[in-house]
Amino acid sequence: MDAKTPAVLVLPGPVRRDEVPGFCAELRALLKGGGTGVVVCDVGGLGPPGLAVVDLLARLELTARRAGGRIRLRDADPALHALLDLVGLRFQMEGQVEEREPALGVEEAVETGDAAV
Known about the structure:
By secondary structure, this protein is of the alpha/beta class. Helices cover 34% and strands 14% of the residues. The chain has 3 helices and 4 strands, in the order βαβαβαβ. It has a 4-stranded parallel sheet, covered by helices on one side. α1 (20-33) runs parallel beside α2. It is globular, with a radius of gyration of 18 Å. The relative contact order is 0.16.
């Protein structure tokens, strides 16, 4: 892994409450050993989203922020995305364009007769 490639933390499911501290410790180690300040959390294997998943992700984000980093979610189920929105948690999703950033490949249409700026 080079300095520009974020580390990946795979979260298998279903997650038990007693596993959360171990995932937080693993996240801290990945942030410490990385260089990007971002760890990608692969949530594709978590299964159906529920409050236990929301709790895990909130704790991971808090752990990352305390360590000076952030997490980004990979392979998030649309239902998980909706549940996170419902409870008011915002996560950066892998492949999702960040706010105020133009999408790649988007071109503005030019009307004939428009003055050059």
